[in-house]
## 1
Amino acid sequence: MTFIDWLVLVLLIGFITAVALSTKKYMQSVADFLSASRCAGKYLLGVADGMSGLGAISIVAVFEMTYKAGFTASWWKLMLLPIGVIIASTGWVQYRFRQTRAMTLAQFFEIRYNRSFRVYAGIVGYASGLINFALFPAVGGRFFQYYCGFPQWPVTVLGTEIDLTYALIMMGLLGISIWFTFMGGQIAVMVTDFIQGMFVNIVFVLLGIYMLFFLFDWDTVIAAAIQYAPSDASLINPAKTSGTDNFGPDYFLISAFSSFYCYMAWQGSQGYFSSARSPHDARMGRVIGQLRNITQTLPLALLPVCAFAFLHHPDWSTQAQAAHDTLAGIDSEQIRSQLTVTVASAHFLPPGIMGLFAAVMLAAFISTHDTYLHSWGSIFIQDVIMPLRQTFVGDKVMSPQNHVLLLKASIFGVCLFIFFFSLLFGQQQDILMFFALTGTIYLGWAGSAIIGGLYWKRASSAGAWSASVVGVLLAIAGWYVTYEWASSQQLIVQLFPADWAAQMSKWEEFPINAQHLFFWTMLATLIIFVVVSLFSRETFDMDQLLHRGDYAVEEDGTAMESEEEKDPNRALSIFKMGPEFARDDKLLFIGSYAYIFLFFAVFLVGTVYMLSTDVSDQAWGGFWWYFCVIILLMTTAVTAVVLVGGIRNLKELYEMLQNVKRNAHDDGTVVGSRSLVDVQEADEASSEGASGRSSH
């Protein structure tokens, strides 16, 4: 790293710090801290929420996958496009969740089911998310240590040897992230994530241009991918991926199903789910977020393929030797796999470009960590502590100052946990497999409770409880056999028929990977939820839940939903552009569908063609060149559009926060089957109505 590279990092930190400070004066209530008082516009949501999901760990995980699967991963990802765009454009789950006016998912669970289920879901979601999140600082810390070339500094603390350099890097990065969170809650998190998201978009355009036209010769990169990749794990030919470790077509098929089934279940970005100023903005934010995904396609696919060529092609053997030596010094196979692209990139990216990519990773680290710290810390207080307090103390509202202080204390506790977990935990799986395994504890069953609760009046608390308990047990069992396979084999030999047990004993590791375990858990819990709910014979007032009809909240624009419910063709109405669609909404909507139809058509035609005709590796190499160029052009266009719209939304956010009417009862408390703020506002309206009639 040169002076210019470090300067880029310092300037980025300084700017986003100043932006975070500007939000402090707007943080005046619990609703501000948790949901930015529901004042966020669609562009702001789309960019900021998208950036929070593009963490340093996500980038490294994609690097790890793409180094093994190459461009073929990009090909099989195309099958996810219809689901992603349809989810976004229809407002699947998110629109109705915003209608509930809940600030956390578990708050919705209490409204829809009961308080005990809220607490249970809060505990399980918190535990699952905390363990999943706990690996994030480790991956980010290792990236910066090896990318920047910081030396190891081994020390022994209480009989445990740790790398002090690695610990200090994580401490510094987490310190910045938690400071942003404390400064302005969801307001600061969202605004800084937007700034970082736009910076990353612009850098990705520059990186795409550099890597395509200036870094390496394309023909040489493709030649390396053809010559040195395994014959059954091609980096460029999707028809030759049978040997791709963990990341074949089945991985993406399961991802397609889970994208629909588990949408919004993961609460790492819970603040964004409730921050939209209307249900329509929530839907359009997702549409914009889907389009923004285009911007990260090119660099995340191209950089690992270039790294593979750099490490394998003889033209770069001299420059690559230092990278090989560094990787050889990493004892853990999993960590070596995780850092391969990082170490290679540090040896072939030039000054300036190297600093820009380091800044991208810094922004990615901070944006995800401040969002996740905010989410998991808030969930523990909102969905475990506060409902339990309500049970024993009653419905008396805690002062906003004390409530926010409690939230900050919980966030600090989460920060400490993930720091020490990352410092001491030994990673044993690919990052994405670890995500799938830890996420299954919660995601394996949450989808059924969410979808059923929002769309089915017969969904019952008994069904939700049954699905959740079975899902947790299956996930824990899967976790155990994955990490304790040797002892599990002994148990299998004792419990199952001899022939089957003998076959199982031959496997060196559990034959079902984390992604497959995730799928079977989702399927089992969905069936259980539906069957038990049908037997329960419960019904729920969906108009009350979704603030429709007599329960409508005018500023949310929710009254029209009740009319849509009367439309015999309402199943198709979700695809229509109603009066709430502004001109730019319509253009974004049309653009989303044009994007999906173009690339999904390419995927379908290409898949059929390659299954019926032997397409040469050289032909695939040419295809990927044009694919990358088209993606680069689209990235540039999307970046320009969201930049203009986002700046406008940012100005509107500050204006709305300046004037918004804050309500101390809007703190996530639920009374009966309604949020306390809804009960209080209904009582005030009733009192005003009675006073008016009396005066008359």
## 2
Amino acid sequence: MNQRETTVVSATNIEEAVIRYGDLIVGKDPRTATWLFEEPSRVAATKLMFMTTPDEYRDLVDPLQSYLSQRYSELDTEEQVRLFSFAVLWAESFHSPVDLSHNLTSDRPHKNQSLSDTEIEQQCQSLLEWVESLAQQNPSVEKRFLSEQRDYTFAVNSAKGLNLFKKSAERWLETGRDPFGCIREYLAQRASLFARGNYYVDLYFSFSEGKSITQFFNDYGEQAEDCRKIGSLGGTTNPVIATLGEDDLPGKWGEARRKLVEIARSEGYDDEWAATAFTELVVFNAQLAQRPVFLLKRLGRISFQLRTDKAEDVDYLLSETPEIYARLCERLQVVDEILLEGADPSYQDCAHSARGVSNNHFKVSVSGPAALRALTEFNSGNNRLDTRLFTNATVTHDLSQITAALDATLAGAEQWERRTGEPMIENDGHFGSVVTSMMGRYVDAMRARRIQQLSQSLGSDDPWTEKIQPCLSGKIPLTSEPLNQTELVDALRSRSEDYRPDSEEDAIRNVATLITKIAILYAIRKYGEEKGNRLLSASKRFFQMNTDLENGHRFSTDFGDIQAESIDVTYQEQPDPWAGFDQETGEVIESEDNPWWQRIQEIRRIFPEAERHLTPGGIIPEEWMDQPYNQATMKEFTAKWWLNVERARLSVELLDGQYRGPDGQDLFAEKCYGHMGDRARSKSWLWARSFLQQDEFQAMGWTDPTVS
């Protein structure tokens, strides 16, 4: 018997295979009993697209479609929604050259088996026709699916007001085409985003072909599946993002909170456990999207932010983090069991060392010496599990923080290498841990610092002081009104303050990019390209931060608003990311023709303390939390962690019948979503409706905020 006859789609096993797919899709696989609504169909689509050889796929596709079509009519509405969602995910992946490249069109390991362009085109058309046939059987399912997708697309990343998928949909609407009007238009719009010509898609292929070293990550727990289809190879989250998803999608995450309340009650866990477990679900949600990439290529890690209020409590971090890691591994073990069940030996072999291993980083807030120790301990494998816990050093803004975090991370990795004999470099050629450069937050802080200087120079009695007061957040460019007005410049110069809005804004706007480039060169000089270059650029404020660093940094994470800016950007390979820098010394080349030299000179002129920010070791660890950018980030992250804890407590109280009646509704809305202003009542309504059973919700006596 040859190998092909032993696979999951051999003649003798094909019937069993399609039945297993059917049960998994509609949520009847007992292994998925505790999963959220959409997760089984997502895993089924992943299994089909990523863990099926091209020849197996050719054998499986027609019987699977035929079986699912027949079964569709026998399902209840909720099950039909699940199957329809699976069908759309399947079709979407065939419109994504990125998804196809991971497996079905890859020459490795399939060689001459891979699907041809003609086969892909035929499959796209066939899948469209099949999805439309399902829609015709029950048009209400199609309508519900499209409505939910419209809501999802326009709700996600609400804090920034925009994401790439929303912007693309809006452009289609402007041309008179509604991507949520019918499934054909929906898939057409999605296909247009997934195609070559998309900045991120082209970046992915440049990376996969060895022309660029830069990987794109999605900076948000949601849209991880969508972003994988445009080339994302990882993701980042933080306490803000964990609660932001709940702000954006209360109807989804209310269900998750209910599951956690039930577990906490049965096991006697407290609110902080429930908040941590909620973060685990947010990370797991993103991990599912990247799981096949991790199994096949050891890429696709998702960051899990550890508590910022415990950043200096090394004992807590060393005891709690392995527990979180073990729980993530346990969740993913079930996923891997399903994905690899009956899979060809080539997949089993490829995934062997990754099976049941969590594809995550742990975000450690680099607040001082204790945090550096934690980075080293995690990377050395000094924990009860005796394994490396890959890290993402965060709350890292200035050069001293970034370089110290790099050194601490690599010190731990080198300890692991010496102790175990295992090479530091992973199978994919990239070491797992990263160090973040929080670019935008640093830019905001330095701009705010400059505006504070201007305010102090003017004095409290000057009318201009009041006019520029709203700008003290640092988010308004110096080239915008009122900061760019000639009268303000003149008023400052009359007080011996040499204020130059254009050149200063250019310098401040690019100071984080400058620091990131210097940090990368520091790491490469000290450790070499493979070991040292692990900078992850984050917290972007404009897309140029990407293009200026492309092919210089290994990792780039973008939030939805930055992704949206890419819609009008054509990807161009960056042959020399170090123009203007001396790679031997890591310093900016002194030349008036060098814009980076002009910028660093301007930074030095306006900030007397600048040299400390631009020098490794310039600010010692004990002083890091004295810096305003670190204080602001830690304050925000910690506040969102405690909001997460508050929502865990509110979940218990709501289940116990508190907050009944109109007054209770208003109080609950304020506690749960008060920071969202006028939207608090409607958000809390949606959250509670998904959290409570129908009879429980009716007993609350709340009024629908959408009804006037």
